[in-house]
Structures are given as structure tokens and as C-alpha cells.
UniProtKB/TrEMBL annotation:
Taxonomic source organism: Candidatus Accumulibacter phosphatis
Binding site for GTP: R46, R95, T126, K187, R287, V288, R289
Highest taxon listed in the record's lineage: Bacteria
Domain Radical SAM core: from-to ranges: 37-259
Keyword tags: 4Fe-4S, GTP-binding, Iron, Iron-sulfur, Lyase, Metal-binding, Molybdenum cofactor biosynthesis, Nucleotide-binding, S-adenosyl-L-methionine
Transmembrane segments: none
Cofactor: [4Fe-4S] cluster
Name of the protein: GTP 3',8-cyclase
Protein encoded by which gene: moaA
Subunit and partners: Monomer and homodimer.
One Gene Ontology term from the biological process aspect of the record: Mo-molybdopterin cofactor biosynthetic process
Keyword Oxidoreductase: no
SMART domains: Elp3
Family assignment from sequence similarity: Belongs to the radical SAM superfamily. MoaA family.
Length: 357
């Protein structure tokens, strides 16, 4: 049985020992925002509000999972305190993720509170879509602007095989509900797997063009030891394959992350490629992640983290220590991630469902 508590290579620095002695102290930037040792401004927080999920995607989780005891998971109020501190420090975009964020009880309450934070310009979410048929209008009303929905295949049997338990028709109903609710943009996230769904790339693009939404193809990342033989299908190869069917015009749009976008003329669709392997995006990285148990990971592809939960619980009414720890965490943001093309052994032992995608 795989246990998410067993992450032996995670280095948890105590909040009072955040800056290793060899590093220069990283003061808060003069304008009050977060800047790391390499001059990168952090403006984007990805907040995982649960490690639990109703799917067991093969690239993300083991079949048998032991989830965290509730006491070790951030309460929704603690999620809000953390997000509030980041927004105070200049973060303008928050993505709520998981695990599956919509299986967290009262997730809508948290989203409503987040949407009200002064200074937060973009509140967005990543979901597997399984609960969207119920929650899409409430999410829209809460103030969520855009949603990413994970969908790796349009074939029901294959969907079940990849997610182990998921029902494609329910996700498609969720997508319908999200389109009807009128979000600013919807995007499909597709993890490309050689020999599994690489024959559907063109079908998936036809599908999103037909619906007037976007798609991002993701290269699989080596996160978590889940006994899954990873067969990376790279963005370059995907692009060549799509160009046999579509005209793709390069777009200059960027979110500061590993995605590069293309447009299809005469459609509203953008096609993105998220390429942690083949594209080095680290120089423009603007994001940090919070896990469901309150660890701050300045880099997805690196094991350095700061445990915020003890700090939150030791100072229940004073956010100053939390803010100070966040500022000091800029001192451990890695210059570049540790991924390599060697996919046999996971370099990062966390599960994606812990850190949030
Ligand atoms: N449960 C939600 C979902 O599936 O959209 C949100 C969390 S999930 C961890 C976020 C994203 O990470 C999904 O788009 C998923 O496909 C992606 N993901 C999970 N494991 C991955 C891996 N090993 N490599 C690349 N992407 C991965
Ligand atoms: Fe759940 Fe998302 Fe991971 Fe799939 S990718 S198992 S839906 S957290």
C-alpha cells in the first residue's frame, strides 16, 4: 500500500531555519513583494486543498492509497490565512487544486472567501471534472474565473483504464455544465502517454475546437513512486503530429510557467504544450505551491520545502510569523528543477496529488 506520509527525501526546514547558512538572507523586496535569489518575482500560488481524490489516475496515484489523517491537513480557514498572506505579499493569482478540490467539503466557501481578497486578480481551479455537473454554477458565482479540466481520452473504456475508476460520461456532463455556467475560459489538460493516448491528440484538438475551448498537452513528470512505467511523449513530437491536421500559429502568450501556446486560425482555441522535459521554463518561473498539509514548495521539481502548518497552529491570531516564513522561503527557491529525461526512478518522491498540479 502506498502511503503519502512516507516521503523520506522531502527536506522540511523548520520555519526558524529557512535560509541555509551558505545563502544570503533574502529580504522582502522594497515594494513589499516576493522576489527570490535569482530576481524572479513570485506572483502565482497553487494551493492544494486536499490530498484525496475520487480517481486514481495511473500517472498520479497508486491504486491503493492511504490519505493523510484530517488533523494533518490544512483546515479551510488555514488555507485562507495562507492565501491571504501571499496576496498581501503581492501574489495576484491563486489556483486551487488537489487531489480533487471538489471532493473537499465546503470548498465553495473557501473559493468565495478567496475571491474577496483585495489584490487577488485571478482565482482559478484545476479539477478532474467529476463533480462539475453539481458545482459549476456555484463555482462561477463564487468568483472562479477560469477552470482547467483534466481529460486524457475521449474513449470511455480508456478513460476507465487511465483513471482506474472514472466515468467519462460524468466528466463530459461536468464540462457541459461548466460551459453553460459561462466561465471566462475553459481548458482541457491532457497528459500525453506513449502507447496509451498518443493516438488521440488530433481527436482531442477537434473536440476542443468544436467546443470553443483550449487544450494543454502535458509531458508526464516523474513524481511519486507509483509503479507506473512512464512512457514520455514529448511536445515536439505532439506538435509535428498535430501539424499534419491543423495550422498552428505560435503565440507569445505565457503564464510564466512551462506552457507554450499556439493558435488555430479561425477558431478561438489555443493549444498549449507543457514541457518540463524539453523546455526549460525555470528562468521565468513565478509560482510556488502549498501542499494539503501546509508545506510550501518553492519548486515543483525540487524537494526543498517549508512546513507552515506548525507555524499556523502556534500563532492562531497573528499572521506576522507566517508572512515572515513565506518571505524567507524565497531563499530556497531552486534556480532550476531536478527533472531529467531519466524517467525510471522518480527524482521527486512526492505524488502530484500532494503538491497540486
Ligand atoms: N484532480 C485534479 C485534476 O486531475 O485536474 C487536480 C489535481 S491534478 C494533480 C492536476 C494536474 O496534474 C492534472 O491535470 C493531472 O493530469 C496532472 N498530473 C498528475 N500527475 C502528473 C504527472 N505525473 N505528470 C504530469 N501531470 C500530472
Ligand atoms: Fe486525482 Fe487529479 Fe491525480 Fe487524477 S490527476 S488521481 S484526478 S488528483
Amino acid at each position: 500500500m502506498h502511503n503519502q506520509l512516507l516521503t523520506p527525501e522531502v527536506i522540511l526546514l523548520s520555519p526558524t531555519a529557512l535560509a541555509p547558512p551558505t545563502l544570503p538572507a533574502t529580504p522582502r523586496h522594497a515594494d513589499g513583494t516576493l522576489v527570490d535569489r535569482y530576481g524572479r518575482h513570485v506572483t502565482y500560488l497553487r494551493l492544494s486543498i486536499t490530498d484525496r481524490c475520487d480517481f486514481r489516475c495511473r500517472y498520479c496515484m497508486a491504486e491503493e492509497m492511504t490519505f493523510l489523517p484530517r488533523a494533518q491537513v490544512l483546515t479551510l480557514e488555514e488555507c485562507l490565512r495562507i492565501a491571504n498572506a501571499f496576496v498581501d505579499l503581492g501574489v495576484t493569482k491563486v489556483r486551487v487544486t488537489g487531489g480533487e478540490p471538489l471532493v473537499r467539503h465546503n470548498a465553495i466557501w473557501l473559493l468565495e472567501q478567496l475571491a474577496r481578497l483585495p489584490g487577488l486578480l485571478e482565482l482559478v481551479m484545476t479539477t478532474n471534472g467529476s463533480q462539475l455537473d453539481r458545482f459549476a454554477p456555484a463555482l462561477r458565482d463564487a468568483g472562479v474565473k477560469r477552470i482547467n479540466i483534466s481529460l486524457d481520452t475521449l474513449r470511455a473504456d480508456r478513460f476507465r483504464e487511465i483513471t482506474r475508476v472514472g466515468d467519462l460520461s460524468k466528466v463530459l456532463r461536468g464540462l457541459d455544465a461548466a460551459q453553460a455556467a459561462g466561465f471566462q475560459r475553459l481548458k482541457i489538460n491532457t497528459v500525453m502517454m506513449r502507447g496509451s493516448n498518443d493516438d488521440e491528440l488530433i481527436d482531442l484538438v477537434e473536440f476542443v475546437v468544436g467546443r470553443g475551448i483550449d487544450i494543454a498537452f502535458i509531458e508526464e513528470m516523474p513524481l511519486g513512486d507509483i509503479g507506473h512505467a512512464r512512457q514520455v511523449f514529448g511536445s515536439e513530437e505532439a506538435l509535428v503530429r498535430l501539424q499534419t491536421r491543423f495550422v498552428l500559429l505560435p503565440s507569445t502568450e505565457t503564464t510564466g510557467g512551462p506552457a507554450r501556446y499556439w493558435r488555430i486560425p479561425d477558431t478561438s482555441t489555443r493549444v498549449g504544450f507543457i514541457s518540463p522535459h524539453s523546455h526549460n521554463f525555470c528562468a521565468s518561473c513565478n509560482r510556488v505551491r502549498i501542499t494539503a498539509r501546509g508545506e510550501l514548495y518553492p519548486c515543483l521539481g525540487n524537494n526543498h520545502a517549508v512546513a507552515l502548518l506548525p507555524l499556523l497552529r502556534a500563532h492562531r491570531t497573528d499572521d506576522a510569523p507566517l508572512r515572515a516564513a513565506i518571505v524567507r522561503s524565497m531563499g530556497i527557491k531552486a534556480q532550476a528543477h531536478d527533472f531529467s529525461n531519466q524517467m525510471d526512478a522518480p527524482q521527486v518522491v512526492r505524488f502530484m496529488s500532494m503538491t497540486g498540479g
